[in-house]
């Protein structure tokens, strides 16, 4: 086998590979000789099948495997001899003309083909000891706990039917059937039967619940309300709808008591135990959000420290995934690029930049983790697999078996663990200063930054 480099442009490499017909012939004869002792053919004793008959019966099938093995060996040799780190699987271009293929299969012509490669870029690991990061942290205040306990008590209270003809008041629960219409036409997702609505809970769009004050069981009423401008269903955002409402029942809400009984209703010994558990749970949420934000700042800093050529196919694959998600979301919301205040070309450019950032940072984190010899332990991977299986109640064993039998799927579990360990490694090197902020400030998200992450 002879491999000759024919192109070297940026991160792209191309080689011409030639496997002589004589080598193919030798491999074929060896394979057929080995096979001759194993096959059973009527009319011939084991091991006594003539080579001409073996070749006629099994030659093409065996040669297909020989060609595939020769290609694999050539690829490995090219990578090894040239010290290449591949970004993608090699792209092999074999002969396509029928006469050329037949000549190779019959070992009457050399196997000549090209293989295109994309390699990973090389770059120096930057020193992050001078990088300064501000980590936002928030304390779980007594007021926050009081508000949470009040909400829990309100959600846990009992409701009793009001007397016949008695009107609903603030805090009552009204069960309704409704049909929502915009410009006289019912819209998808705008209807429901036997839907409980707690007046004053804010669970419905603004203005809806307030108009149920004073209704009685059996009443029919038209409720007019406007969807918020930032409503999650973009095709409804900012639009005014009329809801034909029929009241099924009205129930008075009991008193929301924050006491030891509340704690016991949640499986705790008393109110203080519930309060402590709540403080711990909220604290975990605060810490997770704090980490998400400081990680994003770290990635922003890394993005400024590195500039190198990116493997074009990796970028294209990342962009295709991002773009597919964007267009699918817009189609579902019935929105256009014009509705978003942009054009398709401008959006493509923006999201290509996001794809390039993700690929660049992925390569940087992988290189840093490799140089720092960061490893994923079996215990860490097992815990991740257990967590994933728990996301599918009743199917845990099927999920477990799937990952155990699919190395690629298991690698997808390993990747985020590796990334978080690399982030920990970098945060330990950078200058991180904590800044105490309010809960509202901690959870304030920058939409642009969220897209880049």
TrEMBL record:
Residues annotated as signal peptide: none
Enzyme type, top EC level: isomerase
InterPro entries per the UniProt record, alphabetical: PPIase_dom_sf (IPR046357), PPIase_FKBP_dom (IPR001179), Trig_fac (IPR005215), Trigger_fac_C (IPR008880), Trigger_fac_C_sf (IPR037041), Trigger_fac_ribosome-bd_bac (IPR008881), Trigger_fac_ribosome-bd_sf (IPR036611), Trigger_fact/SurA_dom_sf (IPR027304)
One of the GO biological process terms: 'de novo' cotranslational protein folding
Catalytic activity: [protein]-peptidylproline (omega=180) = [protein]-peptidylproline (omega=0)
EC number: 5.2.1.8
GO terms assigned for molecular function: peptidyl-prolyl cis-trans isomerase activity; protein folding chaperone; ribosome binding
Alphabetized Gene3D superfamilies for the sequence: 3.10.50.40, Trigger factor ribosome-binding domain, Trigger factor, C-terminal domain
Domain PPIase FKBP-type: residue ranges: 171-251
Location (main, coarse): cytoplasm
Pfam families in alphabetical order: FKBP_C, Trigger_C, Trigger_N
The organism's place on the tree of life at top rank: Bacteria
Subcellular location(s) of the protein: Cytoplasm
Keywords of the record: Cell cycle, Cell division, Chaperone, Cytoplasm, Isomerase, Rotamase
GO cellular component: cytoplasm
HAMAP family: Trigger_factor_Tig
Membership in a protein family: Belongs to the FKBP-type PPIase family. Tig subfamily.
Function per UniProt: Involved in protein export. Acts as a chaperone by maintaining the newly synthesized protein in an open conformation. Functions as a peptidyl-prolyl cis-trans isomerase.
Domain text: Consists of 3 domains; the N-terminus binds the ribosome, the middle domain has PPIase activity, while the C-terminus has intrinsic chaperone activity on its own.
Name the record gives this protein: Trigger factor
Organism: Camelimonas lactis
Classification of source organism: Bacteria, Pseudomonadati, Pseudomonadota, Alphaproteobacteria, Hyphomicrobiales
